[in-house]
Amino acid sequence: MPEARPPIKLDFTSGLDQLPARPKMDAASTQASVIAGREFGFEGRHLEKLDGRRLRSRGANIQLNLKVTEEEKQRIIVAASKLIQDPSSPIKNLGEFVVFAVDSLKTPQS
User: Fold this and answer.
1) CA distance 75 to 99
2) For 1-110, where are the E strands, in sequence order?
3) Gap between the Cα atoms of 45 and 43, Å rounded
4) How far, rounded to the nearest angstrom, does the alpha carbon of residue 78 sit from its chain's CA centroid?
5) How far is the C-alpha of 54 from the C-alpha of 87, rounded, in Å?
6) 109 φψ region: left (φ > 0), alpha (ψ -120 to 50), beta (else)
C-alpha cells in the first residue's frame, strides 16, 4: 500500500499587505468607453434582477393531493399541456388548469 502524502497547507493570505495599490482609472478613457458603448446600444446595468418565481406567483400556497389512476393522470396532463403550451391560453400551470376545469363545469341550474 503506498504511503499517504503529507497534507499541504495552502496559505492565501500571507503577503496581501505587500501587493501594489490598484491604479486609478483614467477618467477620459472611462468616459470614452461609456460613449462608445452607448453608440453600440449598451445602456448600462439593469437596476435589479427580476425573480421569475415572483412574476409567476398567483398567490396559490395550498397543496391539493388527488388519487387518480395512471390513465386519468395522463388524460389530465395531456389536456393541461395543450392549454399550457398554447400562447393564447391564459392557463400557465396545472393549478390554473384545475381551476379552469372546475369553473367550466359550473352551469346555470335549470
Assistant:
1) 16
2) none
3) 7
4) 25
5) 20
6) beta
Cβ–Cβ < 8 Å for 98, 60: no
Print the domain residue range for 100.
64-105
Residue 75 lies in a domain: yes
Please give the radius of gyration of the chain, using alpha carbons only, rounded to the nearest integer.
30
Specify the pTM. Answer: 0.46
Residue identified by cell 486609478 is 24
Q: Which three cell numbers stand for residue 90?
A: 391564459
Residue 37, domain member (yes or no)? no
CB 92 within 8 A of CB 84: yes
Task: Give the pLDDT confidence of 50-85 residue by residue, as tens digits.
Answer: 666 666 667 777 888 999 999 999 999 999 999 999
For the chain, the domain total comes to 1
